[in-house]
Amino acid sequence: MKKYLQILTVIMLIAFAVPSVAFAQGSEEVSNSETNVAKEGFVVENGQVSYYLNGDKVKNSDIIVGNIGYRFDQNGYLMLGLQRGVDNGTGEKVSYYYINSAPYVYTGELSLDGNRYYFDNDGAMQYGEQKINGNWYYFQPETGIMQTGLYKLADKTVYYGADGAMQYGEQLINGLPYYFQPGNGAMLLGWRDYNGATYYYTTDGIVLGEKKIDGHWYYFDETDGRMRTGLVTHHGNTYYYNVDGQMQYGEQKIGDKWYYFLPGKGIMQTGLYKLADKTVYYDTDGAMQYGEQLINGLPYYFQPGNGAMLLGWRDYNNARYYYTTDGIVLGEKKIDGHWYYFDETDGQMRTGLVIHHGNTYYYENGIISFQEKE
Q1: CA-CA distance, 264 to 122, in Å (whole number)?
Q2: At 5, is the secondary structure helix, strand, or coil?
């Protein structure tokens, strides 16, 4: 018995004298006592991930393990976070997001700095159209950022919701109505009648403001996108759009009033305007006026019915005036071979001694006297 106890004591002393050894396998943590053991593969040391190849730590390079590329810094540590342009052995440069737990690459959806990305099962960042869990998503080709909102693909415009998934059917986007075809999500283009209003869509989305379509100008409300008809004021001018929404030009009868819209531009005319055969007057609301009118404090008369301005001589309120197609005459005017002078403020024909332009003249019955004025 005594001999047996002596042997046991020797064995225990030997056991305590031998240092402990742990072999790194996979991603296990390695203790400080392992320095005498050759390391291979991934090793986590003090929270840092390293990779050993044939016993040497990989430094300042990309390596390929399986189908995945990994990037290590000059100290041999895996460069955590987003790394772009990593060699994965296929000739492509891939972006990965490295983490410090196996398999050391992030997979699935990731939010980063306000943007969202998607990494496949090998940790590679995805680009372009991707079907994930039955939904279609789009990731920008250069950055991999997940797209939301309206987006123009090569052959269609689609809409990705706030979660990035492609949407279908009726959609309100910024309060404006859209429709996306079931199945392929393509936005409906061209004309669309919806809830009693008419809209127009291009590949850029719903049209707001002016748009030329098939040779005609239209105006779509810049707030709600509805096609406007009738008299519409925008950008400082008033225009007229018929029941089909097409801009109109020239003379137009709206209700029981006549208006004029400049050819080519469609801008509603106000004030005196020379038509082909007459001069007329449109009030500030654009409607043609008739009868006696004071324009800039000066008296005019427009014929009832056709609105034509009275031309030539006119006696009114004990004063005499003269009118051409340009309006009331102010200043000097030669009429039927004689020079007359009309006050440059009130338009009244002057008689007697009149001083103007630094000289004094005499007008007898309105006609200049004493010298012939050429």
Answers
A1: 62
A2: helix
